Amino acid sequence: MASRGYEAARSMEAGNLKGGGGGGLGKEVHHGHGRTAHNMSSSSLRKKSDLSLVSKVRCSPLRAFLANLQEIFLGTKLFVLFPAVPLAIAANYFHFGRAWLFALSLLGLTPLAERVSFLTEQIAFYTGPTVGGLLNATCGNATELIIALFALRQGKIEVVKCSLVGSVLSNLLLVLGSSLFLGGLANLHKEQLYDRKQADVNTGLLLLGALCHILLLMFRYAVNTGEQAVDAAPTLALSRACSIIMLLAYVAYLFFQLKTHRRLFESREEDDEDDDDVVSEDEPVIGFASALIWLVGMTVVIALLSEYVVGTIEAASDSWGISVSFISIILLPIVGNAAEHAGAIIFAFKNKLDITLGVSLGSATQISMFVVPLSVIVAWIMGIEMDLDLKLLETSSLIMAILVIAFTLQDGTSHYLKGLVPLLCYLAIGACFFVFDSPADQINDINAGVLTTTAAVTKAY
Amino acid sequence: MASTGYEAARRLGAGNNPKGGAGSRTAHGHGRTAHNMSSSSLRKKSDLSLVSKVRCGLLRAVLTNLQEIFLGTKLFILFPAIPLAIAANYLHFGRVWLFALSLLGLTPLAERVSFLTEQIAYYTGPTVGGLLNATCGNATELIIALFALHRGKIEVVKCSLVGSILSNLLLVLGSSLFLGGIANLHKEQSFDRKQADVNTGLLLLGALCHILLLAFEHAVSSGEHAADASPRLGLSRACSIVMLLAYVAYLFFQLKTHRQLFESEEEEDDDNDDAVAQDEAVIGLPTALAWLLGMTAVIAILSEYVVGTIEAASDSWGISVSFISIILLPIVGNAAEHAGAIIFAFKNKLDITLGVSLGSATQISMFVVPLSVIVAWIMGIKMDLDLELLETGSLIMAILITAFTLQDGTSHYLKGLVPLLCYLAIGACFFFVSKSPANQINDVNAGVLTTSTGVTVA
């Protein structure tokens, strides 16, 4: 779930606010609440809250509470998926099939992720643009981060690596490709432009991340030849050094985006914007305390569902007959990214490619330069030996994806074939992982078997 | 030490020059090339007042000459390292000291050599001068490579040349763009991408040759054929000829047909305080030639010390020979150019920065490397273009990152930070490759050579 940073001067809105009515609001707008790419993308999934029903309730605190609930739960078109959350929890306690638990948890994560981004946006109204931007940037990929941390804790390092690579691939090829493809078909005879500077910044950072993975891969080969034993310690040390470098780059990227080169990332407002589907708000709809409480609560539920997902991934793999790596690389990211994906496509339809690129590229950059090195550092603290060494297949898919996207986006224009190519690349990579039964699956099964056996033995005492 | 060729018509200089005597020369054209301007940023104006008090005419001429040569650069403080290094060799100081002092001594010498070739170019005209700059510009890397070849330390040759390319592409360019971007935070920073494209294309050709060698070796050995060295050597030599052809074409492109692409654009408000821009030579042609030969000889001596003591330094400091060859040697060797590139990035003259760093990388990749292979061929040494997987992978990634960074013709500090961090990652990687098999091969080679020498002497 990507976020852009929080921009300044939503000038068009400020201009439209007539006279005194916006006077009190004018100060806040002046401080600057520009519509970032992420905000606008999420807002495409919002519905205008119809408060007529609630306003008939007489008791005032109850009415406020109900309005709050309506805003939180019914404020998105994805609310149909919300029942999956209690169903998943029920499935856990009533011992439904583990594959059902896996599927329901995945479905439940989708609306929760979207609501978390909505809540961080609301909080950002109160905290100002910079802190809001940082909050968006950090919490934007909350789902991927939490899944990764739980998988680390359960020792499933391959799942972590695969799911993060899969997220990057999904954002770069699937989300971007499908958006450009559908947007190109919808705007067949219009000129489709975007600002390539933003794409260049993201591409550069993604290449730095890919370089670190490639160095790790080659390092392992270099150490392996000459018939030396595979010493894990230098690989780990190099991974940790590279993770620190990647985090440095991410901090510089945030500084660049939020402080010095803000205007590069501001979404350009056009005059004839149709405000029917897009709910753009100048003021928050829920209070600060309430937003914080909901945010904490939703994060807890996300953590719960993530734990189910990570715990049942092998069972689902056995039950459905597909490898764990395929589920981690392809399925998990697709479902996790669904909300953003929808938003990106909608904005491509409206020929607002800067926002589409902001969402997809920004998400990929965040995961590659923030979540991945953070996982390595957290694993370091937890004493788990996670390194940046993806396997050959994942690393080469990653570097090819970045190259394809870099070449696609390098001239600042788009058409549907530019979207079809990355999309077909993603299909090819998906097919590759579908038929690939990695040894890691067997290792994971052994790990899981060992863990359950150990747990059973420990319980017996 | 790169050069970008020698350009025509320094219009600004010709326009501002009231003297008629120099007019005919400037009409021939002595444009300020990127390399010349970069080096000149390290020059100091010669203060001739002290020398002019000396009465004897001949002595005064010699002293002026000496002052111009030795004190004409801000790097003159490093000059004492040269006699110290020579003393260290004869007085048998620790070999590590010899290594360090020789490295330090090479830095000002490289800068002076480029100064001397610039002076000679005033006399020989732009084309020959450009060729001279292009060839002598990377004299230090070339001489170090030849000495290492002579001693059979083929891995050191390969590593130091790859390290030079990586250093120019990522470290020099990255740090210049980064610092320049911070210094010019709110200005528009643009450069002409055509020059960058030409260099990138040639670098990719060089990288292709290395990748072909690597893949060739892999393809041959995986088919359970014995690792036969001769096809690999044959392919390396063929590729070297191809690379040299490309380099000749590049020189022709740069000096004859597309000169205007490489001319540094002069701006009206050029501040001539720090950059000593000269219209005429400050020393005579025979003097310059004599000094050039002398300095090249000293460079040769110091290079021999460096190549000879590299293993001792590696053992003493506890870091691998490949790390020293890939990271340390190029950083020290490139220091003068590096400083110049940063200074011009501060002044928002990115064309010059790019000319220095990219041009240097292209020269090493397309001239020094294939030349080493050809010279090894003549000397009967089996050097090929096959770098290890790690070096080749780093090289191709570095070229890609640089190509993508420079492809839109603008710059900001994040564009410099990314290559810089890439260089840090690559440096960390080579740091951790502490016990590579190459070390053991080099030690074995060194041991064999000294043993056979001992046997022959006996």
Outline of this structure?
Chain A: Pfam families: Na_Ca_ex. With 461 residues, chain A is mostly helical.
Structure write-up:
2 copies of one chain form a homodimer. With 461 residues, the first copy, chain A, is an all-alpha fold. Chain A has one domain: A middle domain of Talin 1 (Up-down Bundle). Helix content of chain A is 74%, strand content 0%. Chain A has 19 helices and no strands. Chain A has helices at 11-16, 23-31, 37-43, 60-74, 84-93, 98-127, 129-139, 142-153, 157-186, 196-224, 232-260, 262-265, 288-320, 324-336, 338-349, 353-382, 392-408, 416-435, 439-460. In chain A, helix 9 (157-186) packs parallel to helix 15 and helix 10 (196-224) packs antiparallel against helix 11. The longest helix of chain A has 33 residues, at 288-320. Mean pLDDT of chain A is 77; it is low at 1-35 and 269-279. The interface between A and B is large, with 39 and 33 residues. Chain B: Residues 96-255, 288-426 form the Sodium/calcium exchanger membrane region domain. Chain B: It is found in: Vacuole membrane.
